[in-house]
From TrEMBL:
This is Major facilitator transporter. Pfam families: MFS_1. It comes from Rhodococcus rhodnii LMG 5362. InterPro entries: MFS, MFS_dom, MFS_trans_sf. GO terms for molecular function: transmembrane transporter activity. It is found in: Cell membrane. The lineage of its organism: Bacteria, Bacillati, Actinomycetota, Actinomycetes, Mycobacteriales.
Amino acid sequence: MEDRSAVSPPAGSTVTPKESRRALVSSFLGSTVEYYDFLLYGAAAGLVFPVLFFPETMDPRLGATLSFVILLAGYISRPIGGILFGHFGDKVGRKSMLFITLMMMGIVSICIGLMPTYESIGIAAPLILVALRIVQGLAVGGEWAGATLMAAEHVKEGNRGLAASIAVTGGPTGSVLATLILGLFAGLPDEAFLSWGWRVPFLLSAALVVIGLYLRFRVTESPDFAAARAAGEVHTGVPIMRVIKNYPLTSLYGILAAAGPLFMQALLAVWVVPYVAAQGVVPRQDALYMLTFSSVLHIAAIPFFAWLSDRYGRRPVMLVGAAVSVSLVFPMFMLLNSGSYWLVALGFVVGNPIIQASMYGPIGAFLAEKFETQDRYTGVSLTFQVGSVLGAGTAPLMANWLFDLDNGGGTNNIAWYFIGLIAVSALAVYLSKETLVRTTARRGGRRTQTAGVAAD
């Protein structure tokens, strides 16, 4: 295929600083609300749903496994949502799609907060939960790429890594809100928490959604997309078919690169919290607070590693992040298994802002710069969301299975699996083209950096 570098118009060329700031804030807050709703289910999956949405006679571990299967259903639907919203995002525009995804997420979260339990309606309860989780997945599937692109396409190309990471940090920020608010109610007596306390965090999302919708209504359309549409570069065909035809290896490398760090993200948020709480050293509420604290540090770590990628390239930073991940995963589990309250807390810190963020920070720009403007929403959605299924979606189920293997390995099995997954991700990054291309051109005495896009 021909080299399609520099097809996109210069990012931010028709955007004022005020509009750029508004796009960044809108992407960050909107993504925060989306992931608050989506990750709130994950936080509740191991603590609440096995008790309330399955028969009392069922083995608790089987109930937890089924809750994780429903969690996986949301991840499986994410690529479908990514393709759906990516299709219209590449043909109609980014702004309107992001408005719709946020509205969908808010409605579903309120429905979960109000829905009856297994005791009230029997088998219909988990079935409704599956349906709502699938709709959640569709919405998040269209959210991540859209929010990331709205941030990245509103700034100059030399700052795209940092800008994209602002939207990416909506994930850990949503996790902070979800675990903090759920943690507050988790301190209630079990009877109160299981009857009504767990519902309040889901219902509170209504206020967050209203704020997010207001901000998204005010933001301008992506300047890259507007320029491409004005130049007649927005095609009338099917974006997903162009992505499959023109970017097969690019898409494959993007999927595999995202899978490794996303596994660690879901492992900590969904599986590790009930695991450490079950050991008896850390109460349920404190485990959620430990995750919350590590997520706060995560919010700062993601832009830091993205900023490094703006200076040194996406590939070098992500490859170093892979090496960091491999070297620290066994120490992380040693801390989590230490039986010491404060060492367990340190284990969360090693896992989130260091292991996960070191490779995940540049991922927004790494994926966005691989596709032309008219294919970018679909391409980024497809690669990231399929990667999320392979990594985050399967993490709790794989962790349960690996931990229970009849070889005495326990968390060592999980650590070795993660190392294998990170090795595959690192290989995909290594085989990818560097998308941050340094040039010797100077503007106002400063060297500029541009993002190259090349089809396979």
